[in-house]
Structures are given as C-alpha cells and as structure tokens.
Amino acid sequence: MVAAEDFDVVVVGAGPAGSSAARAAAEAGARVALLDRAAFPRYKTCGGGLIGPALAHLPGAPPSRADIRRASVTLRGGRSSERSGDGTLIQTAARSELDTWLAEAASEAGAEVRTPCAVLQVSDETESVLVTTDQGSLRARVVIGADGTSGRVSRLVGVSLSRVDLGLELELEAGSRAAEWADRIHLDWGPLPGSYGWVFPKGDSLTVGVIAAKGRPAETRAYLATLVRQLGLDGLRVLHDSGHLTRCRAPSSPLGAGRLLLAGDAAGLLEPWTREGISFAVRSGELAGTIAAAHLDDDGLQPAYTAAIGRQLGPEMAAGERCLQAFERRPAVFHRLIGGTDLGWRQFSRLVRGETTLDRAMRRRTVRVAVRALGG
Ligand SMILES: Cc1cc2nc3c(=O)[nH]c(=O)nc-3n(C[C@H](O)[C@H](O)[C@H](O)COP(=O)(O)OP(=O)(O)OC[C@H]3O[C@@H](n4cnc5c(N)ncnc54)[C@H](O)[C@@H]3O)c2cc1C
Does the CB atom of residue 37 touch ligand 1 within 6 A? Predict the structure, then answer.
C-alpha cells in the first residue's frame, strides 16, 4: 500500500475560494496541496462580475474581459433606464480564465496544484485528516473544503441553509452586438419573487442569466427565454447553456468541524440579495488559509475562523438578507430608486465599487427607514 503524502493544509476545490485559501496558507508558510476534479481551464456557470470587494482581494489585476461603465435597468422587461457613473463600476471575467489565473497565483505562492484530481472521501481522524482521491491519498493537519454548492466536505460538516436559488445562464456569441455591449451591463428586476436577470458582456461573448428561488425551474427558464427575446439577443449563437445552484447559510450554520474548515459556496457564504459570491469566496478563502496555517494543531482553529467570518462577512450577509426580503415584496420600489433616482443610483454604484458595504449603507437613516417600510 502506498503511504499517504503529508501536507499541512489540503484544499479541496480550486475555484476562487480554494485558490485564495491555498495562496494564503502557502504565503503563511504552510505546505499546501490544492486539488480540483476538473482539468483547467474549465467552464463555470457564472456572470463573472467582479465588484470592488472582489477586486480588492485578488492577487493583482485579474484577466478581465470588460471594464463596465454603464448600466441599463428594467423592471420585468419594461422601459429601460440608462445609468452611468464616474469610471469603472465593475469588471467582468470569464471564469475559465479567472480561476486558472487564481490557481497559478496559488502555485506561485508555493501550493502544489493538482488537477484533475477528484476527492472521493475525507475522514477526520483526530490527529490528522485522510483525503482519498482518484490519484492516491493525502494526509493533512487541516482540510479546507472549497468544493462549491454540492461539496463533499460541506456535507460532512453539516451546513444548514437559509436559501437556495437556481441560476440559469446562456453564453452567447456577441458577434456584431459586441460594440454596443463593450462597457455596459443590463439588470432586469424579474417576475418571480426575489428574481432578477442580467447581461454581463465578456468581449466576444455575452452572459445572459436569471436567478430565482429553487423550485420553479419551468418559470425560471421561461424568464430567461423572455429576457433574451426582449433584449433582441435571441438570434445569437449559444455557446453554453447551463444552470447552477447558489446557497446562503443559516446564521447558525457551522463553518467547520474538527480539522475541517469551509469557504465560499461550500460554506453557503454569499450575498443573499444579489447572490454575488466571488468576493465572499475570495475573502473567506483568504481567512480560511491564513487561520488554518496559524492553527494547524491547536483548538483555536474553529473559534478563530468563526469569529473572523462573523466579523468580516456576517454583517454584509445579514444586511443582504433584509434587503432581499424588501426586494421580494416591492421590486418596483427598488427599480424606481436605482433606475430613477440619483441618490439610489449613487448608493448602488458605491456598493458595487466597494466604496461602501450593504450593512454600512443600511445604517444610513434614510435607507434603514425605507427598507423597514418595505418589510425588510
Ligand atoms: C448563474 C450564476 C451567476 C453568478 N454570477 C456571479 C457574478 O457575476 N459575480 C459573483 O461574484 N458571483 C456570481 N455567482 C456566484 C459565484 O459563481 C460563486 O459564489 C463562486 O463561484 C463561489 O466560488 P467557490 O470557489 O466557493 O466555488 P466554485 O467556484 O464552485 O468552485 C468549486 C470547485 O470545487 C471543485 N470540486 C467540487 N467537488 C470536488 C471534489 N470532490 N474533488 C475535487 N474538486 C472538487 C469544482 O470542480 C470547482 O472547481 C453566480 C452564480 C451563479 C449560479
């Protein structure tokens, strides 16, 4: 029998959470292995929208496809409000390129990156964790589960969720429409409670997507088809047609157990209103990697990580949940505020640029009163 290879930290999943965790742990001096079952570059269903807090935590300038300066906003496909800001609102990236770049950054920091390498089993054996893969076994002092929404490690930890949504996307060849979408995104507040749709341009392609609470797949698909038709994009060649779940953790859900920590989607860390997840993945990954390296063999691992996530991401998730509750009840008011008022648009642009956070914005008296009046 071949002996398991020894590492300080093994990270399962090389999305934004896993690669950030591996990079942070390696930079802190740990011996790290980063495993992903996919061969990179791999396609990932995602708008690839990079808001300010994501950009601020990336290891340099990412391989960006578009610098977004304008937005058009509609309510259920109605009249469009055009908005622009001073400079960049967000950037967009193709996830195949972003994730490959993040894994390379982890490798440059010293992590051993193994792809494709599927993790088949994880057993926390008190003194260490045994990770069984289709390429052999590894032993780690800490395992970080960054294996996404249907992750094996999060099942082991027993994550509990407050919300699960279904996101559907079409990746379209932009062709002759590329120029009109070069620096513009589109947002549509949708017909299903809490739903919205988007167009995120990526140079030679356009990602058109919708998201709504899981459980109404036919209506969610119909919403996507309607959005594509209303925007006159139905003649474009479809490059990818896919769907993926997003999930938000319940406030009391565990972020780890024993020698296991969870980061990103695996932990249910996501902004509940916009379902923005890359910044949560990168930030939680960095925290998990740094804390794992500092607490390889002591009881401080779980309390340190739980406290850090609670402090740094908890308030944003709680504010997002209240925002979503208000948005579910009164999307038309959100539309009027963001699409129709300078104050609302300014707050929204500051949010996506990372100049404020949702919880800080909601501490402003006017916003707080408005959200409360809307039932959030
Ligand atoms: C339709 C849609 C659009 C979205 N658009 C945006 C957006 O524009 N901006 C934004 O910020 N967020 C967006 N999100 C959310 C964002 O995609 C996620 O929050 C983000 O990908 C989470 O990163 P992660 O690293 O936690 O997980 P993932 O990116 O899912 O990475 C998990 C990795 O784990 C690997 N893995 C899984 N199981 C195993 C195993 N057993 N062994 C080895 N490897 C394994 C997978 O191959 C994968 O590479 C969107 C989500 C959806 C569904």
Answer: yes
HSE-CB of 148 using CA atoms within 13 angstroms: 15
Residue 141's nearest CA partner among 304, 299, 19, 297 is 297
Using DSSP's 3-state secondary structure scheme, residue 215 falls into coil
Using a 6 Å cutoff on CB, does residue 146 contact ligand 1?
Answer: yes
212-245 burial: b if 16+ Cβ within 10 Å, else e:
beeeeeeebeebbebbbebbebeebeeeeeebbb
Q: Take atom 4 of ligand 1 and give the residue whose Cα is closest.
A: 46
**Tens-of-pLDDT digits for all 376 residues of the chain?**
678 999 999 999 999 999 999 999 999 999 999 999 999 999 999 999 999 999 999 999 999 999 999 999 999 999 999 999 789 999 999 999 999 999 999 999 999 999 999 999 999 998 999 999 999 999 999 999 999 999 999 999 999 999 999 999 999 999 999 999 999 999 999 999 999 999 999 999 999 999 999 999 999 999 999 999 999 999 999 999 999 999 999 999 999 999 999 999 999 999 999 999 999 999 999 999 999 999 999 999 999 999 999 999 999 999 999 999 999 999 999 999 899 899 889 999 999 999 999 888 887 777 777 666 666 6
Give one DSSP letter per residue of 132-184, joined into a string: EEBTEEEEEEEEEE---TT-HHHHHHT--EEEEEEEEEEEEE-GGGTGGGTTE
Consecutive H or E run containing 186? strand 184-189
Atom of ligand 1 nearest to the CA of 165: 53
